[in-house]
Design goal:
Elements: E1 3-9, E2 14-21, E3 27-35, H1 43-46, H2 51-71, E4 75-80, H3 82-86, H4 90-101, E5 106-107, H5 110-122, E6 130-135, E7 140-146, E8 149-156, H6 160-167, H7 175-192, E9 201-205, H8 207-216, E10 230-233, H9 234-246, H10 249-252, H11 266-280, E11 284-287, H12 292-295
Helix pairs in contact: 2-4, 6-11, 7-11, 8-11, 9-11
């Protein structure tokens, strides 16, 4: 069957996936690209996307269009998530995208984002009862699955970029700032979920999750495929958090497995995952590289 392409414009990164989808619905990844475009940079100040951030995303989209053209792909799914749906000037941004690329961009609601991430995980995960956690830049989607069926999903405004801007004002951060961030996440979890419902295995998706697995395994960021279904324990995550919290942003850029442009937000993302693991009473989580970029091809089946 012809190849398909999906693009996700996130708060922190813009990603491209090219897949070969077989008649039985099996998805085989062919090529994957990621650019750290930081669309959400400065968004919290006036709730508007900044022109330089928009330009970074448009440049990535033009680059991806060339890759898609080389593969002669007609089926292209362009998605945008938290930063775009929150921005007051999102319509202007979407017009820029269409004018520059000729593509229409679908802005996902929090529920849609959660559902597509769930479908992506489900495409090759063997567990029955689990929780999918997608910690993005602007939001985190948490999905409870029972017997491989979506039971409950919620999108929370506790993404890595958003929490960094809200709490981690020092470099390196103060212990009080780290503690305040953790407390805020716990309140959000207790407000939106029952702890008893959350006591099941965790599958973590998204750039933060992959980065943490790469850091823990000392694997180059260019070999992310090696950490698909990687098991990250809470003890190892706490060690990563300690290392990140002791370093300033410039020092973090040299950590093996961490994209230098994620150095400013990775600590907040790690802290969010640590709080989720504590809330779920789990000492390990599985990293999956299959998220909404895969799920968007499965929602119609």
């Amino acid at each position: 069957m012809p190849l398909k392409a999906s693009i996700d414009i996130g708060t922190n990164s813009t990603r491209l996936l090219i897949v070969d989808m077989r008649q039985d619905g099996t998805l085989n990844p062919v090529e994957h690209h990621e650019r750290i475009t930081k669309l959400g940079e400065g968004l919290s100040e006036n709730n508007e996307l900044q022109s330089n951030a928009i330009d970074r995303v448009l440049a990535a989209l033009v680059e991806y269009q060339q890759v898609i053209h080389d593969y002669e792909i007609d089926d292209i799914r362009l998605l945008a998530t938290s930063a775009t749906r929150d921005a007051q000037n999102r319509d202007i941004f979407l017009q820029h995208i269409t004018k520059k690329t000729g593509l229409d961009c679908r802005v996902l609601s929090g529920d849609e984002e959660a559902y597509l991430s769930f479908l992506g995980v489900l495409s090759d995960y063997k567990g029955e009862n689990f929780i999918v956690c997608d910690v993005g830049g602007g939001s985190s989607e948490i999905i409870i699955a029972a017997a491989k069926k979506l039971q409950f999903a919620k999108s929370l405004n506790i993404g890595s970029s958003r929490m960094t801007q809200k709490f981690l004002h020092s470099d390196p951060p103060l212990k009080s700032q780290v503690s305040a961030l953790g407390g805020f996440v716990q309140v959000e979890l207790h407000t939106n979920f029952l702890s008893a419902d959350m006591q099941r295995e965790i599958v973590a998706v998204g750039g933060t999750a992959a980065s943490l697995a790469l850091i823990d395994s000392s694997t180059s960021e260019h070999m992310s495929y090696k950490v698909h279904h990687y098991a990250l324990t809470s003890n190892r995550l706490e060690k990563i958090i300690t290392e990140l919290a002791e370093k300033n942003i410039d020092s973090r850029r040299s950590i093996i497995g961490l994209h230098p442009k994620r150095a400013d937000v990775i600590l907040a993302g790690a802290l969010i995952f640590a709080e989720i693991m504590q809330f779920c009473q789990q000492d390990c989580m599985t990293i999956s590289l299959r998220d909404l970029l895969f799920g968007v091809f499965l929602e119609e089946r």
